[in-house]
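Input record, target 12 of the design panel.
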């Protein structure tokens, strides 16, 4: 039940938030239709098809490899009992905390011609030059697919595992009665049951794969993401960059459309609380140890080995890596992340309060519109943000020149730290919106009615009733937004002012120069910060499971 508070002020805040945060996307779409007779035409006639083809192969390859890795892992953890399962259920999420460009550098260092593995092979077999033997080249499109999949597979692992646990075991038990082997049951029952969850996870992985800039740039693989970056910094053509971004938006719409189409006729029936309390398959002997070895191998490749090497770098190069620059850039990143987190949470609370209190049919529109920025890859987002801010700067300078009231401010918005913070708010607002909305759903409407019957205003209801109950959700939302800001790279590379670095751009510059060792302490800090949301997710799921 919604109450008839006086909501004109809250309505203005909600719709102003939705308008401001969707403005970059609107400008991007408009700019992408503008004529460009030079740069974009040149790219279209030369390399644009290669960029598009590489992007399609990258997305398809990462999704396919993520399925190969994550689906068996999720099925084992959901339905089976084997040594170490309790630890693998949360540990297999850890690769999400590892930035892809860090893991790409570490494996490149391992497998390069001068790396320890090829050096050992030459020493053992007496090979003298590359012509004496064949060894795969990791710095290729295939190598980028493997690196990105090792980091992104946990999305599919978590979502598919949760979907399997929330479904009744009865169909799987029926397949056992019919004589299906575990493998046949996996393909004939579990995969069809979880196809909606698989489609949703693969849509997310597709978007993240297309958004990846650092890994493909480090491996010299040209994709649409690197094309946006190169077009802006190489040709200084916002229109051409916007057109390429428009192609990426089309890919995003296709991915989202396919995901929704795949679930158009799917009905989901939740299990009873008393079901699914134990495993369906008790593995023993060779099968049990194979399951443990498979889980351990994926965890070792995706997290343990990279973190051990990163720690060895930090110990060996501590005096060079632990310096004043690292402190300065960490502090700059912390300030930006704190401000953006506060703004995102505050706006989300205000928008969700309006959605909860308003009786209008369109009350949910501002929150949905404001959340559209999360689907934009970092490079696309940077171009989208530059467009309205550049226009605003131009109008402000024209006004200053015509009125002579104040000196021309120059690039007050597009050339300052404001552009970077605005981009972060546009991109990560959706995280806080979802977390606050979920918290609001657990607050009984009877509290609102009691407050209204006592003559309490809307503002006091929010401050004295809702916010104390939203503290946990606000803290979670703020923390996740904070961590995402600390890790964001492509938008920071394009939007940071001159002589300004974030921790992510600082580390990436050393990665690009093949000197990650000198930024190993900063890289470790980014990884450790990234572990916090995984800890929260794991604790939340364990609490939910124990409650049920």
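The sequence produced for target 12 reads:
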């Amino acid at each position: 039940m919604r109450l008839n508070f006086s909501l004109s002020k809250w309505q203005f805040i909600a719709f102003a938030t939705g308008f401001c945060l969707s403005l970059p996307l609107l400008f991007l779409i408009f700019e992408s239709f503008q004529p460009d007779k030079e740069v974009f035409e040149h790219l279209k006639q030369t390399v644009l098809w290669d960029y598009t083809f590489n992007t399609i192969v990258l997305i398809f390859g990462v999704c396919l490899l993520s399925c190969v890795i994550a689906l068996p892992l999720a099925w084992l953890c959901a339905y089976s009992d084997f040594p170490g399962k309790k630890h693998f259920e949360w540990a297999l999420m850890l690769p999400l905390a590892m930035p892809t460009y860090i893991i790409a550098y570490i494996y490149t260092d391992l497998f390069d011609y001068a790396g320890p593995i090829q050096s050992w092979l030459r020493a053992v077999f007496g090979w003298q030059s590359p012509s004496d033997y064949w060894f795969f080249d990791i710095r290729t499109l295939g190598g980028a697919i493997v690196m990105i999949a090792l980091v992104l597979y946990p999305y599919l692992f978590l979502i598919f595992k949760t979907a399997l646990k929330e479904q009744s075991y009865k169909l799987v038990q029926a397949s056992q009665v019919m004589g299906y082997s575990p493998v046949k049951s996996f393909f004939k029952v579990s995969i069809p049951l979880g196809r909606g969850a698989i489609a949703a996870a693969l849509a997310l992985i597709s978007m993240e794969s297309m958004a990846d800039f650092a890994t493909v740039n480090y491996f010299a693989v040209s994709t649409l993401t690197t094309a946006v970056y190169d077009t802006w910094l190489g040709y200084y053509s916002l229109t051409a960059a916007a057109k390429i971004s428009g192609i990426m938006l089309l890919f995003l719409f296709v991915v989202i459309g396919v995901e929704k189409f795949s679930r158009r006729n799917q009905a989901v029936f939740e299990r009873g609380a008393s079901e699914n309390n134990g495993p369906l398959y008790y593995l023993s002997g060779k099968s049990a140890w194979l399951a443990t070895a498979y889980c351990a191998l994926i965890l070792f490749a995706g997290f343990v080995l990279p973190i051990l090497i990163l720690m060895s770098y930090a110990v060996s190069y501590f005096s060079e890596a632990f310096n004043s620059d690292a402190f300065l850039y960490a502090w700059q990143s912390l300030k930006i992340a704190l401000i953006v987190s506060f703004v995102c949470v505050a706006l989300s609370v205000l928008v969700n309060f309006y959605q909860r209190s308003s009786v209008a049919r369109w009350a949910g529109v501002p929150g949905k519109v404001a959340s559209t920025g999360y689907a934009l890859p970092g490079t696309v987002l940077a171009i989208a943000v530059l467009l309205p801010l550049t226009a605003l700067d131009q109008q402000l300078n024209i006004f200053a020149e015509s009125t002579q009231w104040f000196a021309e401010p120059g690039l007050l918005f597009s050339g300052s730290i404001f552009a970077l913070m605005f981009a972060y708010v546009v991109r990560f607002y959706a995280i806080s919106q979802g977390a606050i909305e979920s918290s609001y759903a657990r607050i009984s409407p009877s509290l609102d009615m009691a407050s209204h019957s006592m003559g309490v205003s809307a503002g006091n209801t929010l401050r004295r009733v809702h916010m104390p109950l939203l503290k946990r959700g606000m803290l979670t939302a703020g923390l996740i937004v904070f961590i995402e800001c600390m890790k964001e790279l492509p938008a920071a590379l394009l939007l940071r002012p001159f002589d300004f670095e974030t921790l992510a751009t600082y580390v990436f510059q050393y990665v690009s120069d093949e000197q990650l060792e000198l930024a190993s302490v900063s890289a470790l800090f980014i990884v450790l910060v990234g572990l916090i949301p995984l800890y929260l997710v794991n604790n939340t799921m364990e609490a939910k499971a124990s409650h049920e």
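Confidence is low (pLDDT under 50) at residues 268-275.
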